[in-house]
User: Fold these one by one.
Assistant:
Number 1:
Amino acid sequence: MVTRRIFLKQAGLAGAGLITAPRFVMAQQAATTVPDRVRQFRNDGANTPIKVTKLRENLFLLQGVGGNMLAQTGPDGTLLIDSSASTAAPHIREALQGLNAPPLKLLVNTHWHYDHTDGNAALHDSTGVFIIAHENTRRRLSTPQEIAFMQMHFAPDPPAALPQQTFTDHQKIFLNNDELHLVHFPPAHTDTDIYIHFVNANVLHAGDTFFNGFYPFIDGSTGGNLRGMVRAAETCLALADNETKIVPGHGPLGDKASLQRYQAMLSDVADKVEKLKASGKSREEVVAARPTSKYDAEWGKGLLSPDQFAALAYQTL
Ligand SMILES: [Zn+2]
Ligand SMILES: [Zn+2]
C-alpha cells in the first residue's frame, strides 16, 4: 500500500499537467497493485457513516466499513482500536468529535488485515496518533503479503501506517482510569491477532478471532488455522463473565453466551472435518460431506458460504 500514496502523488502531478511518461507508467503499475476488493472497500468507506453505540461511560463501539472499532475516551486522550478504510478517516474523526472526545492519542490494531489497518496512515497523518500492534502485524504490513483464499496481493504499507510500538506476548496500558491488557493469541485467524481487554470496564475486543453470527474467515496464508480459532474463543471465554461486552471483529456486539455458541460450533466443525480428513478424504470429498450442515441455517449466511468454510477448515487443520 506504499504504492497507494505514490499513486495519489502521481495522480496529483497528472492533474497539474506535470506528468512525464515514466511517471505515468509507474502510476499505472502502482494502481494495479491495489486489489479490487480494497478499491471497493475504500469506495464504501468514503460513503458510509459511522454508527456509534455506547458500551460503557467512556467506551464506544464504532461501526462503518471493515472491522468493528472501539473508542475509549477520557482525560488521557482517546484510544481507538482498528482503523477501517483510509477513506473512512474523516468519518471516524467526525464520530469522535460528536462524542466530544479528546484528541486521538493511541491506535491499536487487532491484526494486520486491511479491513482493520487501511486507515492507519490517514489517521496517523491527520492526528499524529501513535500506533501499537503485535510485532507480526508490523512485519506483515511492512512487507509484501497475500491472502491466498481471496487472491489478494498487498504491497508494503507506507511508514505512516506502521505500528510505532510492537510487542511479542503481551502489553499493559494504563489509560483513562482503566487497565488494558493487549495479549497475543497463538496463531488463530492469522499469526498477528491480539485481544484487548479493558479490565475495569469489563469489555473485550476479540478482533477477527470472533465473527459473531456467521462463519469466520481464517487466513491460512498468514498463519491462521481452525484449531487456533477454537482456542482463541476459549481464551476469551475464560476472561468473560455474564456482564462482559465482547466486541467481535465482525458482526453485532457479543456477550459470553454468543461467544459460547460460536466456540461450540467451531469446535464441533473442527472435530468433524478432522475426522474426515484423517480417514483420507480429499478436500472436495470433505466439502461434499457437508460437515457444517447442522449450523448452516444459523451461521452460513455471512461472508463465507458453508462450502467455503468447510474448505477453509480442511485447509487449515
Ligand atoms: Zn476483518
Ligand atoms: Zn481479519
Note: The domain at 34-316 is CATH 3.60.15.10 (Metallo-beta-lactamase; Chain A).
Number 2:
Amino acid sequence: MRTNPAAYGDDPFVDKKCPGCGQAWPDFIVEGTGEQAVRCAHCGAVIDTFRFDEGYTIVFDEQRRVGLTVTAEVAERLAERAHEVMALPEASE
Ligand SMILES: [Zn+2]
C-alpha cells in the first residue's frame, strides 16, 4: 500500500482532503471500479488517499469456510454488482 500525499494533510487515516478543491473529508461519488472510481462530490477529483501495488478478490462459500481467489476478470464483474454480492452490513457503503 502507498499513500497519495495530495489527498491528506498530516495523517492519511484521519486527515483526508480532496486534492482538487481542498475540502476536508469530502462527500464522494463512485464512478465505475478501480483506484480512480472514488471521486469528490464537489469537484470530481479522484480522492485516492491510499493506492495499492497488489490486490486480490476472494469469494467465500455460504458458511464462509472456504475462500477462493478469483481472476481480475471475475473481480471486475463482481465489482460492478458490489452492493448485490458483497456481505456488507446494511448501513455500510
Ligand atoms: Zn474536491
Note: The chain has a mean pLDDT of 91.
